[in-house]
Amino acid sequence: MLKEQIYELGKKARTASRILATASTRMKNEGLIAMAEALRVNKGEILSANRLDLENGHSTGLPEPMLERLLLNEKRIDEMAYGLDKTADLKDPVGEVLGAWKNRQGLEIGRTRVPLGVIGIVYESRPNVTADAAGLCLKSGNSVILKGGKEAINSNRIIASIISSAARSRGIPEGAIQFIDSTDRESTAILMKMNEYLDVLIPRGGKGLKEAIQQNATVPVIMTGMGICHVFIDETADMPMAVNIAVNAKVSRPSTCNSAETLLIHEKCAEALLPSVAKALEEKGVELRGDERARTIWPGMKRASMEDWATEYLDLIMSVKVVKGLEEAVDHINTYGTGHSEAIVTENYSSSSRFLEAVDAAAVYVNASTRFTDGGEFGFGAEMGISTQKLHARGPMGLEQLTSVKYIIRGHGQIRG
Amino acid sequence: MLKEQIYELGKKARTASRILATASTRMKNEGLIAMAEALRVNKGEILSANRLDLENGHSTGLPEPMLERLLLNEKRIDEMAYGLDKTADLKDPVGEVLGAWKNRQGLEIGRTRVPLGVIGIVYESRPNVTADAAGLCLKSGNSVILKGGKEAINSNRIIASIISSAARSRGIPEGAIQFIDSTDRESTAILMKMNEYLDVLIPRGGKGLKEAIQQNATVPVIMTGMGICHVFIDETADMPMAVNIAVNAKVSRPSTCNSAETLLIHEKCAEALLPSVAKALEEKGVELRGDERARTIWPGMKRASMEDWATEYLDLIMSVKVVKGLEEAVDHINTYGTGHSEAIVTENYSSSSRFLEAVDAAAVYVNASTRFTDGGEFGFGAEMGISTQKLHARGPMGLEQLTSVKYIIRGHGQIRG
């Protein structure tokens, strides 16, 4: 798409965002419910568009996991619609007063939650993101500009068109939900420099997309979902719990960012516990890659290279390292982790406290699986991804993380001396 | 400075930040008090270094306002020291629990305030920023890397050296406060791409510096202090209050970002009020630049060009526009404002509500001067600038705005189904 066309979308989004910022909760909810209903009613059309994408995918030799992510069926469309209905049920974050006080001059100062304004989302193959992201942005009073992956262009186009016209039918302004109907990368490059109209850009997708945006964006960006997560089995760990947590963190859904990639185990319990943990993981089909000491205890493992500690496998592979103790585990995590989710399994109180305090990550767990880092599990409802940066949002991004603040000040003629 | 040297500072800062993150409030406060004391004790050395900078400034023909910003004297050094003492008195934001709940699986989830980590500050001629910024970063548990302007290199070097060794003498880790002892722009260019070690970069200085950082940084940035602020005199405004607020917002300190640059006035009161307001401003030495209608009422004004509406004068100049009413005022502000501070003078309740709601800015005032947008006036204590972006921090940045959050999760073996 041409720069002028994308800027035109930006301008419309900005105009719509001014209206949305003061739209009633009721109107936004009615929009969301209409969007859900429109998805259900127009299933046939969505499925035909999706078939086109799948055919193109097959003929261009798209790998099986990508075809799987691309696939829509009646159940998945119902889930998208259900997600929008559920977003309507969530508390509206806009207008919440986060604090109010009088200053020494008698000014009444209030800190109020307001929408961010215009949010750009660049995503890859999963077409459900089109509806999910649009729903969260609408509920939080933001305009959204969506740019999906080229594999899903037909599915995304029809979903975007259905939901945006359903929203408009309930009074949501034109420009609130817009879709960049283009498969070129140039559009993304324009979007990431459109500071006049974009308040934030959120990339959702693979490493390549995220790095390109981090390197080139001039608009504020929120980086999400890079997860090299660890499970550390401390000296005093309960054996069945350690096995359960390590297995769950690795195998319950290896393609997600909150899955563990590395197992750290205290040298004092490695001989007693590692065989059981390793066996349980291998029985689930996990390929283990260990350091020297781990391989002495469980010789079947492959040798881990330095690169393994810094790799997000997103697959049934796990690196294993025997550490001298808690401090080495913490150092390893703070060196190789991506600041996502980290867990310790321990029965020792002081170790649990030290781990919680010293590990620098969005979510730090004692005796629980890293897989819980998720908006739904945290009780936030839907989410826009897991932020792995420290600025603005850290961890699961729910509706609150899509807002900013505004100071409202009421005076009676005060001037500054 | 070479890239390797700056990365070495980054590495040290990161190591120190891990220690600082769990440092006690007491230790941080003792560091701050020692820094203040060291500034007082070493006044002579600071003044000699400052004299060098002033001499260089004179000989290179630095403009008078820059020399004024560069100048240190005993009083200014005492103020810097007092600022550090006051920062020690502020509440430590680190460790505050922002919420805690049990999820449906019985996990105890807590949301806790933690430091950002490593903060970079790039600033221009005012050497007091060296001490102020270091103090705020230390109190909020962050390491700081400071890069000052070349005009102040001698002053900054000695101040940084005095405060960092004073802090170290109280157990603050080496690397907590570091100064880039270089005047080349290349160092700034390296800093703004040092994603491995920098959690955020805050530019404090002129438009050129900020634009260069916005265009080129790959690290997260907080943009501060761009202020095209407006005062809108509504139809029902009280005349003396309108005069007072307009004059205070423009002339009390024109070089600051919270000063007003444009006066908007409702057409229904323009004939009655504009002459008094214009006269009062001109008596304070303000050059007025008006649109056609304003010039009909007060013919002495220069003609405003389109460019005037988009200019931050930072000087005794003010543009003046007669508007048809509140909505035109809001549109003008949302078009030309920088989202900093905006004021309405009105006696009408509905107009005040509409203005507060519809104006998109960090601080929106009814019947008070825009000049109050300031950490001290808001009751935050010291500040790191006024953020004009919506991500992470908006408005005055106090200690809280220099923190992130961390989720602490305690379980008893939970795994995700």
Derived structural class of chain A: alpha/beta
Please count the beta strands of chain A (DSSP E, at least 2 residues each).
16
Mean pLDDT of chain A: 95
How far is the first residue's CA from the last residue's CA of chain A?
Answer: 53 Å
What is this structure's SSE topology?
Two copies of one chain form a homodimer.
Chain A: H1 3-20, H2 25-41, H3 43-59, H4 64-70, H5 74-89, E1 97-102, E2 108-115, E3 118-123, H6 128-139, E4 143-147, H7 153-169, E5 177-179, H8 185-191, E6 200-204, H9 207-216, E7 229-233, H10 239-251, E8 260-266, H11 267-283, E9 287-290, H12 292-297, E10 302-303, H13 306-309, E11 317-323, H14 326-336, E12 341-345, H15 349-358, E13 363-368, H16 375-378, E14 386-387, E15 395-396, E16 403-414
Parallel strand pairs in A: 3-4, 3-6, 4-5, 7-8, 7-12, 8-11, 9-10, 9-11, 12-13
Antiparallel strand pairs in A: 1-2, 2-16, 14-15
Helix pairs in contact in A: 2-5, 2-7, 3-7, 5-6, 6-7, 10-11
